[in-house]
Specification:
GO terms for molecular function: catalase activity; heme binding; metal ion binding. By secondary structure, the protein is α+β, with helices and mostly antiparallel strands. The protein is built from eleven helices and ten strands. Among the domains are: 57 residues, Cytochrome C Oxidase, Chain J (Irregular), CATH 4.10.91.20; 259 residues, Catalase core domain (Catalase HpII,  Chain A, domain 1, Beta Barrel), CATH 2.40.180. The protein binds protoporphyrin IX containing FE.
Length: 475
């Protein structure tokens, strides 16, 4: 018997029950008892192991985006952007890269309905030859706040009341009345697209400004956008009640069934491009996540397409244990100085070390599919097989060398240390433009949703007046 052959996998199942350590189980129905009626003996190791595993089946759900569905497929480059980036997976049209995608709602729990008014997460992990690239975005192209310092309070306000465990508009409107930068995001959330029909019929956006950098070191700011080939569709209030009432997992089911039926969802990827040299030319700050870049000035350039053609094999392994992180990038793609993005660079791997354990990147769904090597090993649940004798650097016994240098942005950062707001807040212009672009019936539905939210009896006269003042400045 080769003791190293059968790694833990259902591919190596024995035809009979065993304990976790492989011993045959001859009775999986009855506990070991003294006599037919009990009591049970503690020495029934199989029973104890079975219960102990069951007792620990749940891991902490994500602190946000707990409810989600995932699927696998590929990304294919359709347009050459090798003049903009040295990213290997974007090197030429026709190049395909495997992906896993997770769509999610944001606020409510792991089992909550998928028909709630909430942004939707749109996270894509590209398994490239130069490591994974995670594009962890949403369906809306902007965000509520622009400084990560506000994020935990924002989530607390949006989540259920800590006393009653009920989501309440007075808490949400109280919090955001202090933050008028959220108005633009609310023109998406309270619009018809605030409840997408399902995960297949929604846009995706990287939201932040990222940097593409080519071999010569020239950096360009970009924004990423996904557009579904089957179009964007939403549920109006009465439809959402009907769909959600009949099936609280309708979007997960729609994704799973579509893929199983061979009706593969597809999105086109576009980028908007801005030369960083021009970043001061506008009445908004291009790194501000509460702003979009106008498409007449920054047109959408096609880059590729993503097709989801494979359902996951196991929800726990490929959804619950899946870990996306905006800091996971590849050569040719870099962050920007966007403060919110900078906060996210810290937060995701931090929560994942807590949620999944320090070796979460060894889990199959998260591990790179290319060769990789470093000495960050050991810790809880390290299951990587290693047989090297040298686990330090540098060493004359270890031939591993540095990778080839790749370009990163060279722009000089300077300024004094401070805690402050950005110069060009311009909180009202873009939400106004968006509201005015709605047809009159869409505007009416938008206003009706606001009237309903502001009618919460615990919204005070002061809070209501602030919101009316904000929306008056927008319109
Ligand atoms: C400073 C601001 C933010 C912080 C601190 C933050 C933090 C988090 C945390 C802790 C998680 C749970 C991750 C996990 O347990 O695996 C999460 C999930 C997620 N966040 Fe954020 N977030 C922020 C802003 C944003 C923004 C602006 C977007 C959209 C561009 C976004 C999109 C997502 C998505 C899609 C997920 C779910 C990923 C998945 O499917 O596993 N977040 N966020």
């Amino acid at each position: 018997m080769d003791p190293y052959k059968n790694r833990p996998s259902s591919a190596f199942n024995s035809p009979f029950w065993t304990t976790n350590s492989g011993a045959p189980v001859w009775n999986n129905n009855s506990s070991l008892t003294v006599g037919a009626r009990g009591p049970i003996l503690l020495e029934d190791y199989h029973l104890v192991e079975k219960l102990a595993n069951f007792d620990r089946e749940r891991i902490p759900e994500r602190v946000v985006h707990a409810r989600g569905a995932s699927a696998k497929g590929f990304f294919e480059v359709t347009h050459d952007i090798s003049h903009l980036t040295c990213a290997d997976f974007l090197r030429a049209p026709g190049v395909q890269t495997p992906v896993i995608v997770r769509f999610s709602t944001v606020i409510h729990e792991r089992g909550s309905p998928e028909t709630l008014r909430d942004p939707r997460g749109f996270a894509v992990k590209f398994y490239t030859r130069e490591g994974n690239f995670d594009l962890v975005g949403n369906n809306f192209p902007v965000f509520f706040v622009r400084d990560g310092m506000k994020f935990p309070d924002m989530v607390h306000a949006l989540k259920p009341n800590p006393k009653s465990h009920i989501q309440e508009n007075w808490r949400i409107l109280d919090f955001f009345s202090h933050h008028p930068e959220s108005l633009h995001m609310f023109t998406f959330l309270f619009d018809d697209i605030g409840v997408p029909q399902d995960y297949r019929h929604m846009d995706g956006s990287g939201v932040h400004t990222f940097t593409l950098i080519n071999k010569a070191g020239k950096a360009q700011y970009v924004k990423f956008h996904w557009k579904p080939t089957c179009g964007v569709k939403n549920l109006l209030e009465d439809e959402a009640i009907r769909v959600g009432g009949a099936n609280h997992s309708h979007a997960t089911q729609d994704l799973y069934n579509s893929i199983a039926a061979g009706n593969y969802p597809e999105w086109k990827l576009f980028i908007q491009i801005m030369d960083p040299v021009h970043e001061d030319r506008f009445d908004f700050d291009p790194l501000d996540v509460t702003k979009t870049w106008p498409e007449d000035t920054f047109p959408l350039h096609p880059v590729g397409r993503m097709v989801l053609n494979k359902n996951i094999d196991n929800f726990f392994a490929e959804n619950e244990q899946l870990a996306f992180c905006p800091s996971i990038i590849v050569p040719g793609i870099y962050y920007s100085d966007d403060k919110l993005l900078q906060t996210r660079i810290f937060s995701y791997s931090d929560t994942q070390r807590h949620r999944l354990g320090p070796n979460y990147l060894q889990l199959p769904a998260n591990a790179p599919k290319c060769t990789h090597h470093n000495n960050h090993h050991e810790g809880f649940m390290n299951f990587m097989h290693r047989d090297e004798e040298v686990n330090y650097f540098p060493s004359r016994f270890d031939p591993v060398r540095h990778a080839e240098k790749y370009p990163i942005p060279t722009a000089i950062c300077n300024g004094k240390r401070e805690k402050c707001i950005i110069e060009k807040e311009n909180n009202f212009k873009q939400p106004g433009e968006r509201y005015r672009s709605f047809t009159p019936d869409r505007q009416e539905r938008f206003i009706k949703r606001w009237i309903e939210a502001l009618s919460d009896p615990r919204v005070t006269y002061e809070i209501r007046s602030i919101w009316i003042s904000y929306w008056s400045q927008v319109a």
